[in-house]
Amino acid sequence: MARTRPSAQRRRKMRKNTESFDKRSRSKNTKRLKLPPKLPPVQLRLRPSKISLRLPPKRPPMLQLLMLKTRLVKRRLLVASIVIFLIVTTIIAMKSLTAAFLPLIGGRAAMDTDYRSHNNVLRRTRERLARHEQEIQRTLRLGLRSMELEVKHLKWRVDEIQQENQTLRDEIEHERRRSRRMMLELYESSDSQETDHSD
């Protein structure tokens, strides 16, 4: 995860702390690493009996080596304390950043759970709608099939009625012709009888 940059206020505080630490370390360093005081010049004391030359006492070489070692150790301790200070400040900054980002992480997790629950609801509604659509299509197919059967039955019934009508028409026509013929025969027979009577 990429580290985020601390805020301006936090950066100013860190800069101030490092500057104050540098000042303190410099002042300590200058105190610690002060050069030994300059040797006093050769003092000549005139006495009536003799002239004595007083020189500063020489340090033994082991003591000089020890002093150099202690200076090196002090310098290393100073560098180590600076490094430790920087590590501590970065740890504090990281802790504050994680404390600031924890609510965001929690909010992101809540958003993820909401998104998952919404997705589940959407998936369930889609499945329910798909089932409903399949049921509607099945009922429509069944309805269409039953309507087709009904239409076929009605067509067959219409054909049957038309055939019955045709037979009835034929019978009516036949009866008309027969009745007409009978009427004509009766009329002719009555005419012939009248002519016979007149004779």
Automatic annotation (TrEMBL):
Region of interest (Disordered), ranges: 1-36
Coiled coil: 115-178
Tagged with keyword Coiled coil: yes
Record field: compositional bias (Basic residues): 25-35
Keyword field: Coiled coil
Protein's name in the database: Uncharacterized protein
Protein species of origin: Gibberella fujikuroi (strain CBS 195.34 / IMI 58289 / NRRL A-6831)
